[in-house]
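Structure ticket #2291
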Amino acid sequence: MTIEQWSVLYHLWKEDGISQQDLCQATFRDKPSMTRLVDNLEKAGLVTRIASKTDRRKNLVYLTDKAKSLQDACHGLAAETVEEALAGVSNADIEICRVVLKQVYENLK
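Resolution: structure written out below.
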């Protein structure tokens, strides 16, 4: 699984059945990139696309049972990765980083 695929699944684990446009905004990707990502996730049997009942131009993306069963394992691996990446970094430095990145994000809105 790629980091791009993980980011899509992560947002679907938080809220299943959101539109591809919402996934674009949540993951900071353009529409063509998201279409390719969802295509690949669909081929892997992890998501399915269903046309919105209220707007046929909109595709809603849903997790399959296979993707739902991977959630705990993926979150565990992500937690391990973060722990490894932050080894030796103090909590104070992590908090400073969060504050700075939040400000950068707000500046770019």
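Closing remark: The chain has one domain: 3-108.
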